[in-house]
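Shipment paperwork, digital attachment
Item: protein structure file
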Amino acid sequence: MDSDKQHEYKPRNVEDMSEQIFVFAEGKISGYLSCLLGVLSFLAVLCYQFPSYLTTTDLRAAYDSVFLQNVLMVCMWAALIFSLITFILAKRRKLGAIGAVFTLAAFALGGYEVETGAVEPNQLSLGLDWLILTLLMSVGIFTFLEKIFPKYKEQAILRPEWTLDLFYFVFNHLLIAVLLLVANYFVVNVFGWAANANVQSTIQSLPTAVQVLILVIGADFVLYWSHRIFHETPALWKIHAVHHSVEHMDWLAGSRNHIVQTIVDRSIAMVPLYLVGPDKAALDIYVTFAALQAITVHANLGIPFGPLKYLITTPQYHHWHHSTDRPAIDTNYAVHTPLFDKLFGTYHMPVEHWPAEYGTTKRLPRSFLGQLVYPFKR
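Attachment content:
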């Protein structure tokens, strides 16, 4: 577009975050690790004791209990070791103390040798196990990648508003069972008439890779239009603006979603999965791909994706969607692949540039409750 060619792309200036930067041998890194592992270990022991109320049915069926208990053992002892390091190195030992207290409480409740409690039929539960596993893996994988391959080296791990986005991460993961229940109810009752057993059987007979491709294209089509409608409908934009209010992109930024948005996204995404009816292997591959991609595209990653950038959405691609640069506003709606942005004229990818600023043109409240009620205020 001509407006794109005339636009002057400016480099991003990241504000000074030197006070938040982790420095080795200060005890800050060990303090946060001790706190994280200690709290997660304590919550994991609670999951073992009250599986019916704190864990998700689908995950329970897939667990390797011996492996998970070994992981729990490593986390608990690591939390205590990091706590000790914090007490030796740090002037402020609060985080190390918190990690030690939660870890010792986990040991008191049975630790990594805790017996699993009785599993009773229970349709609704907190997805505490889902929260623990995803947080542990996300921190371990994406924090590492962002430090090795950062787009913005000056951006600290504990960048502004990281606690707000962590709260969103926790909130949305704990509600996973409720969200799935609502999504399943919506899909079955609204689209049940459209499901065709013969079509599903034919699709299941296809190679797994082909089934996954069908899921990617089908899901991306409905999510593209859902996303676009949220942008182009004023009342819905106020809901979606919560997600766009993030001003520092990293792996945690994608967690900031209004609860209404989360419910709609989960329900809409279920429609093609339900109608296509793939086999379990294809569904598992797609769900894993979608979850990892959702985190990756928001991450502070400067990895060159090469030709892949024409096939899948990448951090640079989705960062432009979050940009306040005028040519980028209301572009790059696609979730999985640039295909539908190309087809429907909403593609924006100046390969040599990255956004100068992120966020919304009108700044939103900076608290969870403020953002929760924001869409309903005149």
